[in-house]
Design goal:
This protein has 244 residues and is α/β, with parallel strands linked by helices. The chain is built from eight helices and eight strands. The strands form two sheets. It has a five-stranded parallel beta sheet, sandwiched between helices. Helix 3 links the parallel strand 4 and strand 5. Helix 2 packs parallel to helix 3.
């Protein structure tokens, strides 16, 4: 078994480079939803990606897709009165998918008591009465504080180089020393007993096997009798050679 693997990712975690965190607005009233989205984009559109959903179930489906893609969700802003699923019910279920996202409930004055009860049931972080005009006074100060709290506790997934090796391996030490000297961000994973390291090594092995099968198929397609193209003098073209 090789003593070390280097798995390349993107840049190191950095708020300037990472995917913009998502603000999800949920309301069945199209006009209200549009107003919320426009206010959010005007204030937070540069730093955050604003998305919308026209109901609780649609919002849950969206969150499931985002979770699969490992995209960060910073804020959930939901109306209370919606057909099929109330805002409280949605926020309760959304908490299971994105427990760290800040949860805000939009209510009419008549629903204030229900909103207060929901603070315990759904562990919402804040409730806002509609209308929220002007947003500079009634919306943005609250959301900005919540987003700062979320950002302070959020740890972006590492997307830089990951070095997998054995602690006492000379090659491992040489690679890590080289990266450090050249100021290349990396994360070191000990292959001994580290589940993430074992998973990544397995994925790398599968990738190499897949590449090997692809190279073999290209090679066989160019064997005499298979109708494959050959270079001058019957030699295989250099582009068909695979190094695994």
């Amino acid at each position: 078994m090789k003593s070390i693997n280097v798995i390349r990712g993107g840049k190191a975690p950095d708020w300037n480079y990472m995917a913009r965190p998502i603000l999800l607005a949920v309301d069945d009233d199209v006009s209200v939803l549009e107003a919320v989205v426009q206010d959010l984009r005007r204030e937070y559109g540069v730093t955050y990606r604003v998305m919308r959903a026209a109901g609780g179930q649609a919002a849950l489906d969206t969150l499931a897709q985002l979770k699969t893609r490992q995209e960060p969700v910073a804020l959930l802003l939901s109306d209370q009165r919606m057909p099929g699923m109330t805002g409280v019910d949605f926020l309760v279920r959304a908490r299971e998918v994105y427990p760290d996202a800040r949860r805000v409930l939009l209510t009419a004055y008549a629903d204030t008591e229900a909103a207060i009860r929901a603070i315990n049931a759904a562990r919402i972080h804040y409730y806002l009465n509609k209308p929220w005009d002007p947003p500079e006074e009634k919306l943005y100060p609250v959301l900005t504080d919540l987003l700062e709290d979320w950002k302070a506790g959020y740890l972006p997934p590492f997307e830089g180089l990951r070095v997998i090796g054995h602690r006492w391996s000379l090659k491992d030490h040489e690679v890590r020393s080289f990266l450090s000297r050249n100021h290349v961000p990396y994360r070191w994973l000990d292959i001994a007993g580290n589940e993430e390291a074992e998973k990544l090594q397995g994925e790398a092995a599968e990738s190499r096997q897949f590449a090997g099968r692809a190279v073999c198929r290209r090679h066989l397609a160019r064997e005499p009798g298979n109708g494959g193209a050959r270079g001058q003098g019957g030699a295989e073209r250099s582009g068909d050679t695979g190094v695994l």
